[in-house]
Amino acid sequence: MKRPILFLALTVALTAAACGPSGITATPTAPASSAASRSSSGSTAPGSSAQTTPAASLGPDKTVWLCRPGLTNNPCAGSLDATALDANGKHTALPASPATDPPVDCFYVYPTVSGQKRINANLTIDPAERAVAVAQAALFSQVCHVYAPMYRQLTLSAIETPSKISLVSALTAYSDVASAFEDYMARYNHGRGIVFIGHSQGAMMLIQLLKTEVDSKPDTRRLLVSALLMGGNVMVPIGKSVGGDFANIPACASSTQTGCVVAYSSFAATPPANAVFGRVASAINVFNKGSAGTLQILCVNPAAPGGGTATLQPYLPNAGLADSLGSAAPKPAVTTTYVTWTNQYSAHCVTSGGATWLQVDRTAGKLDLRSKLALVETPAWGLHLLDVNFALGNLVDLVRSEAAAFH
To answer: How far apart are CA 341 and CA 85, in angstroms?
Structure first.
C-alpha cells in the first residue's frame, strides 16, 4: 500500500516544482517512445520497494545496463592506466585496473549527456553515455563493482528549452532509475554495501531515490556506504549536517565515516545571484524546492571531508582532452586512458552571501609548465562540467577508505 502513497507524494512535489520559476510546465505529455524504451510492465513508480526478491521468482532483467560486471563491451571495465604530469613537465605512469573482488558495489547515474533531439532520451546506448561512463565512473572499478543503468533522461535539447519539460517527462526519467535499482537489489546486491554516485541530473535522480528507497528504510540504509552527489544541490538546514533532503543520512565528516553523503558544486569564484548551483533558490532541480531562509546547499570537500583546504587529484580522459584544456593549449603527449595533474589545484568549502560551494583554486606557481584546465562554464554554472573530474582521484580514494571501514 505504500507504493501508491509515495508515488502520489512525489507527484504533488513535482507539480509544485513545475509551477516554479524554471518555466517547466505541468501539462502531461506522453513519454518518449522507442523500441528500446522500457515496457510498461517493467517500469517502477517512485517510492516502490527495493527489497530483494527470491531468485526463483525473478523474470528477465529488463534494465538496460550501461555498466555491469560481466557485461560485454562494458565501458567501466577497460584500461584504467593514467599518466601523472608534474609542474616540471615530468610524466609518471600510474597503472591501474578494475578490482577482481571489490568489497562493495557502486550504483552510478550519469549526468545530462544525451544529444537526442527529443525531451526524453530512449534507452539506446549512444557514444555520449559510453564516454561519460569512462570519464566519471570507470575509475571507481578499482574499488567497487560498478552498476550504471541507462535511463530515459531529460536530454540536452530539453534542458535548453525547459518550457517543453513536463511532469510526465521528469517522472519518466526517474522511473527508469527506480526500476533499475529495484532490479539491482533483487538480482545483484546480495547484502553488499552500496556507494551511490551521481552528477548533475544523475545526482538529482539519486537524491529522490535515496529519499524514497534508502533514507526511510532502515534495512536498505544499513547497506549505505556513502552517496557521492556532485552538482545536485543537496539541501540541509542552515548550519546542520543532516535534515533537509535526508532525515537519516548525514554529511560525511571523515574519510572512514559510512552511511553518509558527500555533495558539492564547484566554482572558481563566488556564485552569482543567478547561479544554477550552490543556491537554494535555483530552479534547476524539479524534484527539490526549498526555502533560502531555512536551508542551504550542502558542501563536503571530497579531498578533506572533515573540513579545511586540501589538494585535488584531477583525472580526465585522454580522449577529448582538448575540450578541457582549450583548443589553443598543447595536448600532453600521453597514450594512457587518463591524465592527472599533481599539486596544481586545491579546494575548500565556502558559505557566503546565501551560497555554499566548493571553491577550486589553482595553487601552482608561475613556473608551472602545465596547461590550466579551461574554465568551460559560464559564471552561473561555475565548474559544473568538471565537478567530478576535478576531484576524481580524491573520490576514488574516499570510496576505498569508506569500503575498508564499512561493516
So the answer is: 5
